[in-house]
Write a structure and sequence with these properties.
The protein is α/β, with parallel strands linked by helices. The chain is built from 9 helices and 9 strands. It folds into 2 domains: 92 residues, Leucine Dehydrogenase, chain A, domain 1 (Rossmann fold); 119 residues, 3-Layer(aba) Sandwich (Rossmann fold). Helix 7 links the parallel strand 5 and strand 6. Bound molecules: NADP nicotinamide-adenine-dinucleotide phosphate.
Length: 277
């Protein structure tokens, strides 16, 4: 029977267990797990994401510290803010909302985040550690996908996974995480030839392209596991699920699949960072 990987439910269940962990940290250890969010500029979508992250913190009793900077902020000014938060013992996780305005060197700023506070998994060092299968906070969307695969007991070892997309926050770390679990991984991107043929060979397909319904249902073989990381205003993902749902082993619905797992992973990793401290 086809499994529907219900990210909303997994996220809610996790929140319940996080409430207990946060209560314990506050009452027994005197720590209030705190996530600092940095928003640069006035992009409405970014502001909404930051607000959703703050709300998630509130729901489980964590604190969120909002840092809002003007769209004229320079790289040096942002680095100064990040360093301040790195040194603040009351801050356990730092989230720099992507994208930042063009004049800022985003990579330099991401890499300035203290590895112990890199709960969004954006630093090169964190990516390197994760890729080497060492302890690290994973980039939240792919890490959330791995948590879904684990919850729904999807077999990864020995399977052929095809990841469509190679962005630093999604496609690339996704591929490394699947490789760490012994999948045979193919990474596809905009220059891939025969994309359809590549996807047709996949036991596990991850759509992380950013184009609505780009991957067609007839490119996906029977009994595949289908992960759709995309989310578009028309409430669809990167994969045209269409008539697929009955012939695949498992799939993530859009909305309610991968989406809720991203913020959930962020707060989970912040609680872990607090516990580690
Ligand atoms: P991105 O940075 O724009 O990367 C898109 C990737 O898709 C690139 O690697 C690009 O290849 C590849 N691509 C573009 N056109 C292609 C084509 N015709 N054939 C094959 N590959 C193609 O996007 P992203 O940040 O990774 O996000 C991907 C999707 O995930 C989006 O729908 C986004 O909304 C969603 N997302 C969801 C969450 C969540 O919380 N649920 C979080 C992040 C992203 P090149 O590298 O060659 O350009």
């Amino acid at each position: 029977m086809t499994k529907i990987m219900d990210g909303k439910k997994v996220a809610l269940d996790t929140e319940e267990s996080l409430i207990d962990r946060v209560t314990f940290l506050k009452s027994q250890k005197g720590y209030v797990p705190t996530l600092a969010t940095i928003l640069v500029g006035d992009d409405p979508a970014s502001a909404t994401y930051v607000k959703m992250k703050g709300n998630a913190c509130e729901r489980i009793g964590m604190k969120s510290l909002k840092v809002e900077l003007s769209s004229e902020t320079t790289t040096d000014e942002l680095l100064e803010q990040i360093n301040k938060l790195n040194k603040d013992p009351q801050v356990h996780g730092i989230l720099l909302q992507h994208p930042v305005p063009d004049q800022i060197d985003e990579r330099r700023c991401f890499d300035a985040i203290d590895i112990k506070k890199d709960v969004d998994g954006v630093t090169c060092l964190g990516f390197g550690n994760m890729s080497m299968n060492e302890k690290a906070f994973g980039s939240c969307t792919p890490q959330g996908i791995m948590r879904l695969l684990e919850t729904y007991e999807i077999e990864i070892s020995g399977k052929h996974a095809v990841v469509v997309g190679r962005s630093p926050i999604l496609g690339k770390p996704m591929a490394m995480m699947l490789l760490n679990k012994n999948a045979t991984v193919t990474i596809c991107h905009s220059r891939t030839e025969d994309l359809e043929q590549q996807i047709l060979r996949a036991d596990i397909v991850v759509g992380a392209v950013g184009i609505p319904k780009f991957i067609k249902s007839n490119w996906i073989k029977d009994n595949a596991v289908v992960i759709d990381a995309g989310y578009h205003p028309e409430k669809c993902g990167d994969i045209d699920l269409g008539p697929l749902t009955e012939r695949v082993l498992a799939y993530t619905p859009v909305p309610g699949g991968v989406g809720p797992m991203t913020i959930n992973t962020l707060i989970l990793q912040t609680v872990e960072a607090c516990e580690n401290s």
